[in-house]
Design brief:
Blueprint (H helix, E strand, L loop, with lengths): L2 E11 L4 E6 L12 E4 L2 E13 L4 E5 L5 H5 L5 E5 L20 E3 L5 E11 L2 E8 L2 E6 L5 E5 L4 E4 L8
Parallel strand pairs: 7-12
Antiparallel strand pairs: 1-2, 1-6, 2-5, 3-4, 3-6, 4-5, 7-8, 8-9, 9-10, 11-12
Length: 166
């Protein structure tokens, strides 16, 4: 089983065992009723979604068998994962952000510049975080900057502005 980080449980909501969560990808449609949610990448530590509701900023999750605020309280600030097979099917040459993590990053001149650590969403932009020989760096991450991507060989070639390394 391949677990993918999906979000973080923020805090209990109300008295009936609901918990608010923040998804790493706000647009994600991966959370559904009966989906297993794992914690600490431990296949034996999971809860099953009973229902999902929405408040103004976050999703509210109710897990099967948890009907009390004090029980869900111990999951506060836990990152949660789902099985990659539970992610919605992709079409064409679409990829999930998690597919880029761990890739060797090359610039447009095919020079290795680092290793992709993460992709984060800030306001209306996606930012690629990578380790380079100069330490951790960030750069804008947009489809039109990707020149080549090989998911199997974990290789990403991007058009990278020279100022990134200034």
């Amino acid at each position: 089983m391949n677990l993918v980080p999906l979000g973080i449980l923020i805090k209990p909501h109300g008295l009936k065992g609901y918990v608010s969560c923040r998804l790493f990808n706000k647009e994600s449609k991966a959370l559904k009723k009966n989906t297993k949610v794992y914690f600490n990448k431990d296949l034996d530590s999971f809860l099953i979604i009973e229902s999902i509701a929405h408040n103004s900023n976050n999703r509210l999750i109710k897990f099967t068998g948890i009907d009390d605020r004090s029980i869900i309280e111990k999951y506060k600030n836990f990152i949660f994962y789902i099985d990659r097979n539970d992610l919605p099917e992709l079409y064409g040459n679409e990829n999930y952000f998690v597919d880029f993590i761990g890739c060797e990053l090359f610039n447009q001149y095919k020079k290795r510049v680092g290793m992709v650590k993460d992709i984060i969403h800030i306001k209306n932009n996606d930012i690629l975080v990578f380790d380079s020989h100069q330490g951790e760096k960030m750069l804008p991450f947009a489809k039109d900057l990707i020149l080549f991507f090989d998911k199997d060989d974990k290789k990403l070639v991007m058009d990278i502005h020279e100022g990134i390394f200034g």
